[in-house]
Amino acid sequence: MKMVKNKFWRIILNIIIVAVLFFCIFYDLSLSNINFPFLTTIFFGVFIIYRFLKPYLR
Amino acid sequence: MNLRAKKNFQYNILFIILYFVFLLSFPFLRSYFNVNNIKVVAPESALVAARTSTNLVSGIFHNIVGYFSERKDLLNEISYLERELQEEKNKNVLAEVRDSNETKIVAKKIFSDFTNIYQAILLDKGRIDDVQEGAVVFLYPNKAIGIVDSVSNKSSLVFLFSKDKNLVEGVVNTKNSKENLKSAFAGNESAENLNLNSTTSTLNSTTSTLSVTTSGQTLTFPNEINIDLSTPVSSSGGLLIEFIGYGSGDFVAKIPENINISTGTIVYLARDENKALGEIIKIEKQEASFHQILFVRGYYNTRENGDYYIENN
């Protein structure tokens, strides 16, 4: 069922995903001249599409 | 839907809600994070440096956001330069005012009619600032655009010359206007005999549909604009032509076909020949008719954000 079978690596993967999410959010916030979080949008888009499509990928 | 799929679905909805919360709060968060940043207009060298950045990652990010940031910087720069230009213009005009005894009032546009943008504008100077009804409104240096219709205490309503079906008299200075007149009115021996109120100078045509008179026979224009076919009469060496506002910033006029006018000729305002009304952009000669139609582009620009000058008579 799970893509990453090993529990340890699954936790590591989750931590990486959250880290990337935070990086995206703070990078967007650090840019003073945009009014829209582009990077976070891309991240969320990819993440949610992946979650939606995951059942059909197998 | 089994339990696991249901859980996944709920998580997805949760993520989407979280994302939208972040999206809506982004401007506030951003201003909180950038509270110490001072925005400055980036000089050209900085923009070039950003564009040619060798760092791959930052280069990609700069290309993504660069469009927006550069656009904003360039817009800032444009508005700054426009301001500078406007100050220069004001300086020149005010110096002119000091030299002469004429009264010119500098005004800003408050409002223009969005439904009919070439009809009327509202300026922010009124009776308190000595604006009088009937004063000519112009742009720097001498581009007449309209006339003050009504004045309140602190504002004045300006009807543009290019208002739909508005009559305005223009003067075209041609090199050989007298000869033109002579050829246009073959019945008259000399052009000098012409004057404004002359009703004798008629161009008799063989067809009964058209006869050009000064008395003003109204003819139906193709676009249902009634043009009072005016006779050009010399006025300080120029041809006096009655133009009709076309409602789109342009003017049209119908003149006898014999008069030679080329495109690019500047049309001046008849009541004040120092002020330009527009430029002839198109001349239409219709077959089997005895007139030609002049299309004149006015100078009023809907995006004009600068100062308007009001000159009292």
Your description of this structure?
The complex is a heterodimer of chains A (58) and B (313). Chain A has 58 residues and is an all-alpha fold. Chain A has one domain (7-57). Chain A has helices at residues 7-30, 38-57. The model of chain A has no long low-confidence stretch (mean pLDDT 80). The radius of gyration of chain B is 29 Å and the shape is elongated. Chain B has 3 domains: 1-36; 39-101, no CATH class; 105-313, Beta Barrel (Thrombin, subunit H). In chain B, the strands form 3 sheets. In chain B, strands 1-2-5-4-3-15 form a 6-stranded antiparallel barrel. In chain B, strands 6-10-11-14-13-12 form a 6-stranded antiparallel barrel. Chain B has a two-stranded antiparallel ribbon with strand order 7-8. The longest helix of chain B has 44 residues, at 56-99. The interface between A and B is medium-sized, with 23 and 25 residues.
Structural topology:
The complex is a heterodimer of chains A (58) and B (313).
Chain A: H1 7-30, H2 38-57
Helix pairs in contact in A: 1-2
Chain B: H1 3-33, H2 44-51, H3 56-99, E1 104-112, E2 120-123, E3 136-139, E4 143-151, E5 156-160, E6 167-172, H4 177-184, E7 218-220, E8 226-228, E9 233-235, E10 238-245, E11 250-256, E12 266-269, E13 276-285, E14 291-298, E15 307-311
Antiparallel strand pairs in B: 1-2, 1-15, 2-5, 3-4, 3-15, 4-5, 6-10, 6-12, 7-8, 9-10, 10-11, 11-14, 12-13, 13-14
